[in-house]
Amino acid sequence: MAVAEPEEPKRSEGTTRRRAVRADAIRNREAIIEAASEVLAAQGTAVDVREIAGRSGVGMGTLYRHFPKKEDLIRTVLRRDFSKWADSARQAAIEARDPWAALTDFYQQALTGYARHSAIMENFALTWSAPDVAGIQQLRLVIEELRARATDVLRPGVTTDDLLLLLVSLGHAVQVTDECRPHMWNRLLHICLSGLRADHRELLPAEAAPDTNSWTRLLPGS
After folding, report:
1. Rounded Cα gap, residues 219 and 94, in angstroms
2. Is residue 118 within 8 Å of 47, Cβ to Cβ?
3. pLDDT reported for residue 134
4. Which member of 21, 45, 73, 140 has the lowest number of beta carbons within 10 Å of its beta carbon?
5. Residue 70's closest CA among 27, 39, 100?
6. Cβ(147)–Cβ(119) under 8 Å?
7. End-to-end CA distance of the chain, in Å?
8. What is the per-residue pLDDT for 135?
9. Which residues contact 29 (CB under 8 A, 6 or more apart)?
10. Contacts within 8 Å (CB) and 24+ apart, 97-105
11. 137 with 153: CB under 8 angstroms?
């Protein structure tokens, strides 16, 4: 027992140090992701990772231990920020009691958030189509819920795919107009939403080739 007594604090100290290292690693990773989110939103994916390391307060070695490739960091940040973006738009829609207001608020909030995040703007169609469709599927669920609520105020024949592709299309409108004519995409949004209202009774053209994934082939990089 006399020999074993001093070993206990050593093991305890070793465990404590390992826990401290893990805690530091978690904090560093979170700091890197937060800094990267800010920089990517402001500057897009062409940003130099040295700026991200500087803002997060870590060295380049630490950054590369967590994210060996710049693409790994971008993918992680975009997944997180995309989810936050979609959830924020969904929450705004949920808070609107009127089904039409819920649908329009979703588009307004989604595209406003989109315009504020350069990296999401650059990668929306490319990153969230094939092969990683998690973001698009997340949006699909939100839009399906909104479409179901708004059935009575939507024109006949409007599908979830129609509403999802409209969001992707308007996202491109944001990309090409936001800097030079920032209100143009908002005007286009209102024109498009007007065309979705139930008082437009004429039938929509049928799809040439029914395919649940056909819309993805319309996205760049698909």
Report:
1. 28
2. no
3. 53
4. 21
5. 39
6. no
7. 69
8. 64
9. 66
10. 99/146, 99/149, 99/150, 99/152, 99/153, 100/150, 100/153, 100/197, 102/146, 102/149, 102/150, 103/146, 103/147, 103/149, 103/150, 103/154, 103/163, 103/193, 103/196, 104/193
11. no
Cβ atoms of 138 and 189 closer than 8 Å: no
Q: Which residue has 């920020």 as its token pair?
A: 81
**Residues of the chain falling short of pLDDT 50:** 1-9, 127-133, 209-210, 212, 214-222
State the pLDDT at residue 126: 55
Asked if residues 90 and 96 have their Cβ atoms less than 8 Å apart, the reply is no
